[in-house]
Amino acid sequence: MIGISLKLRYETEVILITFVELLASASWISITLFVVGIGLLIVEMFDPGFGVFGIFGVICLIGCIFVTASTVTEGIMLTAFFFVIILIMLGIFLFLVSKGKLPGKLILKDSESKDDGYSGTIDMNEYKGKTGIVTTTCRPVGNVDFDGSKLEVVSQGEFIEKGTKVEVIEIEGNRVVVKAITN
Question: Which helix (H) or strand (E) holds 34?
Fold first, then answer.
C-alpha cells in the first residue's frame, strides 16, 4: 500500500513539474491563441448566436496546443488543462444562470399580453354546445360549418358523413370535438 501511494505521489509530482515547465516555455503565439480562444468562448457563452465565436475559440485553443506541445504527452496535458478551464467557465455560467444574473440579451423581457392584442390561440369556447353541418366527412377529422364559420373538428373516433348535423361536446385548446346528433 505504501509503495503504491509513493509511486502515485511521484507520478503526480512528475506530471505537475512537466506541466509547469510546459507553461514556462510557452511562446507569445501560444499565449495569444489561448487568451483569444478563452475570450471567444466567453463571448459565445454570454452572447449566443450561430456558434461562430465558440468554433473559432475552440480552433484557437487547438492551435495553442499544436504550437505549444512538442510531444504527445504535452498535448494530452494541455488538452486536459483546457478541458478543466472550460468546465470551470461552464460552472460559473451555470452558477450565474441559477442566481438570475445573466446579461439582458439572454432573457426575454417583453411579454405578449391579451391587453396588447396578442393571443396564442383563438378562444374556441364560444363554440361549446353549438351545432353545425359537416361539410367534409369526418374520418375522424373533418370540417364543419357553424352558421357560416368553418372549423376543422374531430369526432370521438367514429366516421361522420357529409351533411350530418353535429354538436360540439368538448374544447381542448384548438381541438374541437364533435358528435353526431341523432334525431
Answer: helix 28-46
Q: What is the pTM of this model?
A: 0.44
Q: What is the dihedral of CA 135, 139, 141, 142, to 10 degrees?
A: -10
How far, in Å, CA of 102 to CA of 138, rounded?
Answer: 50
**Residue 74 contacts residue 104 (beta carbons within 8 Å):** no
For 67-111, write each residue's pLDDT tens digit: 877 888 877 887 888 888 888 888 888 887 777 776 666 666 677
CATH code for the domain in which residue 164 is found: 2.40.50.140
The C-alpha cell of 154 is what? Answer: 374531430
Q: What is the mean pLDDT of residues 99-125?
A: 69
Pair 93, 137 in one domain: no
Instruction: Give the Cα separation of 139 and 160 in Å (integer).
Output: 7
CA distance 102 to 94: 10
Q: What is the DSSP letter of 26?
A: -
* 65 in a structural domain: yes
Q: Which of the residue ranges 9-13, 91-95, 140-144 would you say has the lowest mean pLDDT?
A: 9-13
Number of domains in the chain: 2
